[in-house]
Amino acid sequence: MTSLVINKATLNQMKVEIFCVGDEIISENSAYVISPEIAEMICDGVGALVLESDASSSPMEDPLLIPWAESNFGIDMELLKQSRSVVIRLPFGSDGRKSGSLLRKNADDGKTLHLHWGGSAETILEMCSEYYNTDGIKNVMDEGRRNGFHQFITDMDNQGLRSMAFAYSTIIEDAADDGAYEKVMIPELRENNLILLFILGLKYPCCPEERRNAVDALRNTGVSIKLVSAESLEVVKPIAVEYGIFRPDHPGSDAIVLEGEEFRNFTESERMEKVERISVMGSASPSDKLLLVQSLRKKGQVVAVMGTRTAELPSLREADVGIFMGTNSSEMAKESCDIFIQNGNFASIVDVLIIGKSNYQNIRKYLQLELTTNVSGILITFVTTISLGDTPITPFQLFLVNLTVGTLGALALLITEPPTQDVLEMRPVNQTQHIVSMSMRRNIFVQVCYQGVVLLVFQFIEAQDFLGLMDSKVKKAMIFNGFVLCLVFNQFNTREPGKKNVFKRIIGSRWFLVSVGAPIILELLLMEFAERVTGFPRLNILQWLACFLFAIMSWPIDYAAKYIWSCLANRPIVLPSCLSSIGFSGLGKMQWLARILFAIVLWPIDYAVKCISSFFADNSIGISSYLSSSGPFKSPSQLPTPTMNV
Fold first, then answer.
1. Is the pLDDT confidence value at 464 over 60?
2. Which residues pair with 19 in a beta bridge?
3. Closest-CA residue to 375 (of 320, 441, 294, 285)
4. Cβ distance 16 to 69 under 8 Å?
5. Domain 13-203, CATH 3.40.1110.10 — does that match?
6. Residues 223/228/233/238 CA torsion (nearest 10 deg)
């Protein structure tokens, strides 16, 4: 991902650690067994916090208790909004200690009102004279029971938990005619007329320092973080500065801070021009967040959205990666997101990024292995078939190589390669970037050229008594054997496509060693004991050593290619003055390298053309005669003229 869109709740989200109803203390992982009446009152109390409320009236944006109640008690906010109406709402004050709501149920007789209070456990406890147990039975809160609740709250505070409580009462509207309940009733109930519903112990999944470290890790790896909140900029901007999301004093910073309405009123061209520089957006609606995600994707960004409530589901669906955070969530939320972080820990996004980058890198490694295998095999088959009418590697044998080396390579590279912190050094990949990177193309090109040149030398060499290559069957056996061994040993190079040290962490990767050892053992058995199947003669010790030497040489070849590439990429190239006359002046380093490689590639192409001409002349050409009489540096007049036998 290249952009991460978050809200304030993803940074400050807490989770329910302890749930207490009456004398029953229920831990996080235990089943909630309570009466249906108590469950309904809990849903009303939790839902009352957000019914007809704006974000500035609550100390917790995107209340974490909504998904908790959805998961454990089946709260349905849409149904709650349709079946309940808010008569009075007393929002959280400046101290954030308590909030009250007076609800009317549409199914009631119209005279019964339901009062719900929620807030700090100590504050709510002082307002209660009774409490419910799990069976829905009211009990008088005597002095001993009250002291027990106080001690329970103190113990949670000592454990670093934030305590929160909810209380309930019913009011008969006739007792408050002419709207007097709006002025008198709530103050009268504050001290001794409420019933304690439940107490919660909440905790942060990680400390603020961990969240800051997570933001730093994301920024260092190239991910742009955008904080989008329904709260005003006065509330959100300090949080963004605290966690390092918005850094106004950073040199060269051009980040934008704006309101959702301002972003909404941009023209299309203005929005596309500024969207990538947006760091903080306040007073934003869910539709503003959706518009931001759509604009980022139009710019080619790979967008991840972290959400905590069902109102954000459209943005989660629109994003390339939808991440839902919460200790609990509805089934709809789980089905709409790609990743579900159940512990609610924002720092877990770094682990998600490591796993995602590791999987992407493993896919790239496997693609490099498969492309090298098939391009090299097809190249050798094509050249030998065109020039000789026969090939040392048949299509069935190439399929067999893919089946063994490819399958075991997939096991080692795709499944068992563990995620590491090193992948954080990899820059983000946008939507337009090709999965086959420049370093992969370099590695494939080098290995294909090496394997093709050496194995074709084996095919066309005419030296007397050299490794028994005068025997065509031995020649085919050595080419096939060397091809398989080279592909097996090339797996080491594939493990680290961009690094010169290909043996890093090799000892701890057992399955990788299996993927290397198993094909070698199978190749030994095939070449030594399956002569009737393959048609290959058994190779002697010297021939086996030559094949292994050829395969092992792929390591220094890979190292040399990476070393030369890094030197050319990091150092200026000073060209001799003689090269200026042939078009090399004013070229960039990569252009200069491309021309040199192109010139090198022309040599085997030139040789292949001569082989084809010789084939049509019914006269095969060997390397020794080619180099002596028709090398690539000979003038065209010196080349033999092919003749066609009619």
1. no
2. 26, 200
3. 441
4. no
5. yes
6. -40
Residue 385 Cα distances to 382, 390, 391, 626, angstroms: 5, 5, 5, 18
Q: What is the pTM of this model?
A: 0.63
Token pair belonging to 420: 């590491």
Query: Which residue shows structure tokens 């629109």?
Result: 318
Q: Give the C-alpha separation, 201 to 155, whole Å.
A: 10
Residue 139: strand pairing partners? 131
pLDDT tens for residues 378-420? 888 888 888 877 777 878 888 878 887 777 777 777 776 677 7
* Look-up of token digits 């049509």: 616
Hunting for tokens 């492309």 — which residue is that?
371
Delimit the domains of the chain by residue range. 13-203, 208-351, 359-553, 572-646
pLDDT, one tens digit per residue, over 301-328 is: 889 998 876 677 888 889 988 888 765 5
Percent helix / strand / coil, the chain, rounded to 5? 55, 15, 30
SS (H, E, C) 147-195: HHHHHHHHHHHHCCCEEEEEEEEEEEHHHHHHHHHHCCHHHHHCCCCEE
CA distance 200 to 17: 7
| pLDDT band at residue 226 using 50, 70 and 90 as cut-offs | very high
CA atoms of 602 and 639, how far apart (whole Å): 17
- What number of other Cβ atoms are within 10 A of residue 521's Cβ? 9
Q: Identify whether the C-beta of residue 405 lies closer than 8 Å to the C-beta of residue 488.
A: yes
Backbone angles phi, psi at 613, to 5 degrees: -60, -40
Calculate the alpha carbon distances from 280 to 30, 61, 304, 335, 350 in Å. Answer: 39, 16, 16, 28, 21
Amino acid present at 172: I
Pick the CATH number of 208-351 from 3.30.420.40, 3.40.50.1000, 3.60.20.30, 3.40.50.970: 3.40.50.1000
Collapsed DSSP state (helix, strand, coil) of residue 538: coil
CA 580 from chain center: how many Å?
A: 47
Measured between alpha carbons, how far is 191 from 196 in angstroms, rounded to an integer?
12
| Strand, coil or helix: 15 | strand
Could you tell me which CATH class the domain 359-553 is placed in? mainly alpha
The alpha-helical segments, DSSP class H, found in 277-347 are 286-298, 313-318, 331-336
